[in-house]
Amino acid sequence: MPEGDTVWNTARVLHRALAGAALTGSDFRVPQLATTDLTGWTVRESASRGKHLLLRLAAPEERSDVRHWTLHSHLRMDGAWRAYAPGERWAARPAHLIRVVLRAPSAVAVGYHLHELALLPTVEEESLVGHLGPDLLGPDWDAAEAVRRLAAHPEATIGEALLDQRNLAGVGNLYKCEVLFLRGLSPWTPVGAVPDLAGTVALAQRLLAANRGRWTQSTTGSLHRGGTSYVYGRRAQPCRRCGTAIRKEELGERVTYWCPRCQPAPDPAQSPDPIQP
């Protein structure tokens, strides 16, 4: 699933391509919006909220009693937006995955395999994103509130809690694994047993912020292929710190990567059964 920084970058691409432009055409390829026509609508801005994309629009006065609207989308595991120059070939994904096309005089935005696509008045955005915790890359980032939300469920594992977007919005599997390695925490550590929850939250925010504005995500400082992560995607490879083979296991509905030596379980009962790398 795309991480919060990827969604932030995508929102910036759409903003640069469309902000301030009046749409010359639209094509929705989902049943709930199949008859929607945004021709003549002006793109006000493109923003992200955690892993949600919010394209804010202004409708022509003569066409709507509500002036400000938001086109909401979620990328989930496989969604993507691309911006093309007029006449450029849409080559990012197969055509049958296209869910929406927005045309402007100087750009065409194409959304592939988007999820939760909805058009609603901007004042109602909270109905879709109001449940989210503080946005790690948002202007209103509130570390203390993120810590409070995490601490409210001390029995949850820290691995699952970091992925719960109701606690803090933007952490995906990659950053979860990397943050826990750098903090020396087993993914199965209960939140209530994490010695410095504020430090863990602060590190997550720093890592996402460090990768904002670029597509190659790195937690190690290296942008070279194979050198961008400490544990994520490195099953059976040696830990960069101690040389122990990195392990991979299910945690909830997601996989997790960790070093059993650098991230020891606080109690054997909280660790999965040993597996062979």
Task: Describe the model.
- The protein has helices at 4-18, 126-129, 143-151, 158-163, 173-183, 197-211; strands spanning 25-28, 42-49, 52-58, 68-74, 80-84, 98-104, 107-112, 115-121, 247-251, 254-258.
- With 277 residues, it is an alpha+beta fold.
- Strand 6 and strand 7 (107-112) form a beta hairpin.
- The longest helix has 15 residues, at 4-18.
- The protein is elongated, with a radius of gyration of 21 Å.
- Residues 270-277 have low confidence and may be disordered.
Q: Which runs of at least 5 residues are low in confidence (pLDDT < 50)?
A: 270-277
Measured by DSSP, the beta-strand proportion falls in 15-25%
User: Quick one: overall form?
Assistant: elongated
The quaternary organization reads as single chain
Largest sheet: 4 strands, antiparallel
List keywords for this structure.
single chain, 277 residues, alpha+beta, 4-stranded antiparallel beta sheet, 6 helices, 10 strands, disordered C terminus
Please give the structural blueprint.
Blueprint: H1 4-18, E1 25-28, E2 42-49, E3 52-58, E4 68-74, E5 80-84, E6 98-104, E7 107-112, E8 115-121, H2 126-129, H3 143-151, H4 158-163, H5 173-183, H6 197-211, E9 247-251, E10 254-258
Antiparallel strand pairs: 1-6, 2-3, 3-4, 4-8, 5-7, 6-7, 9-10
Helix pairs in contact: 3-6, 5-6
